[in-house]
Amino acid sequence: MRIILAEIRGEEKLAGREFRETVNIGRDQLRCNLVFDQGQWPMVSRFHAVLRSDGGRGQVVDQNSSFGTFVNGERISTATEIRPGSRIQKAFSSSGSNGRLANSS
Questions:
Q1: Could you give the percent of the chain with pLDDT greater than 90?
Q2: How many distinct structural domains can be found in the chain?
């Protein structure tokens, strides 16, 4: 499965990044392949969330992060299915910056 993530800030969609199979999200550069800077994103945990394929379907799983992971505005506590167009927020932030799953195959 191919995962393409695009960052959205307000109404502005930034360039997307493509990943294969699993995306580890967090601040830990050794453990994560989508890394957030602690100075700019202090609400993102070292190992915040995982995007993965399960039986051909996309899922996001929060890794017991301090500030949570949100899909389409709802905080998740279990593996949650994501589809093209789903909005994934790492910790709820007032900056309006979040990721959108642009495409998966």
A1: 42
A2: 1
